[in-house]
Write a structure and sequence with these properties.
Helix content is 39%, strand content 16%. It has twelve helices and 15 strands. The longest helix has 20 residues.
Length: 336
């Protein structure tokens, strides 16, 4: 099949591109070409250089190409979906929109999430925009037969550190752990979460490509491994060679009040236990199975960071936020 990935070099998407190549698909990658695709372990694809946000120039780059599938990993607002509909309606057999599992209803009414769980997130604009994107996709599917499939990843990692506070592309959390400094953990650390390795996600995602039975449908693709946030932070710290993390537990609402930027990702996502029922993706892609445990995957991730010192960026801002929240909370707690 002829597949176009828009983006294709990100933390989630690169693994899917590599797997599609391994499956001998004819893979095209559209991005701005700022770095060679080989930097992301991507070989054997056709590179199209263009900025998806410049519709006219992208239309020229696409030329007369027709694709069996188009996967957009970098659409975040409904106007970007409207643009993609203009670009690809009639020139692709399937359009895969990468949404977000953070769009599911918060707070949860039931602990186990299926694809029919309502989409509603009053805390996080990012999630509300993803919901609006899904609505635009489905409206186009109903009205003009736009061949959409919606995919909702949850916290997915390979080249990021997937902790709730102080990680992602920032290496500060690892530095703190190695120095024996306390790390900030929301709540009491006992809520359950699911973290998925990008290579596992790719198996489900690539399995959906070209399947005509999944048009107009939505799927989340996650691991079945359930971990508490305490276990997640400990796994990162142990992988860093520091033993179990020194943790300070602070209520999520307190953290969000001190740092408004964390309100969405905590209150609108990570503060509550989240358990995914993956029956639907397994039914459609029978070979799908998440096999990379977080304990093993995070070791690979830290090794990837440290293979290039330029990746080990340490944000002093992250240290300041964690230190200030911990100091303020402990001062109040000690005064009680």
């Amino acid at each position: 099949m002829k597949i176009l990935f828009i983006g294709g070099t990100g933390n989630i998407s690169a693994a899917s591109v590599r797997l599609a190549v391994q499956h001998q698909h004819d893979v095209f990658v559209l991005n701005r070409g700022k770095r060679p695709l080989s930097d992301f372990g991507i070989e054997g694809v056709t590179s199209l250089i263009g900025d998806i946000h410049d519709e006219a120039s992208v239309r020229q780059v696409l030329g007369d190409h027709h694709f069996d599938a188009v996967a957009n990993f970098i659409a975040f607002k409904p106007e970007e979906i409207a643009r993609d509909i203009r670009l690809f309606n009639g020139r692709c057999g399937q359009y895969l929109f990468i949404g977000s599992a953070s769009a599911y209803q918060k707070p949860l009414v039931q602990p186990v999430i299926t694809e029919s769980t309502p989409l509603k997130n009053p805390y996080w604009e990012y999630s509300r925009n993803k919901i609006a994107c899904e609505e635009a996709c489905m409206k186009a599917y109903r009205e003009v037969d736009f061949p959409v499939t919606i995919v909702r990843p949850s916290l997915t990692y390979e080249t990021v550190i997937p902790v709730a506070i102080g990680g992602w592309e920032d290496f500060a959390i690892v530095e703190r752990m190695r120095q024996g400094k306390p790390v900030l953990v929301h709540g009491d650390g006992s809520s359950l979460w699911t973290i998925t390795h990008s290579r596992d996600f790719a198996k489900g995602f690539v399995g959906l490509i070209g399947n005509q039975q999944v048009l107009g449908e939505a799927f989340h693709i996650t691991s079945d491994e359930l971990l508490t946030w305490n276990q997640i932070y400990d796994a990162v710290s142990i992988a860093a060679g520091a033993g179990p993390a020194v943790k300070v537990h602070v209520p999520s609402a307190f953290i969000a009040k001190m740092d408004k930027s964390m309100e969405g990702s905590l209150l609108g996502n990570k503060a509550v236990s989240t358990i995914f029922d993956n029956s639907k993706i397994k039914r459609v892609v029978p070979a799908y199975k998440a096999e990379i445990s977080f304990q093993n995957g995070i070791r690979d991730t830290l090794a990837w960071f440290e293979a290039d010192p330029k990746r080990c960026v340490i944000s002093e801002g992250s240290h300041r936020i964690m230190d200030s929240v911990i100091e303020k909370y402990l001062s109040i707690f000690d005064a009680l």
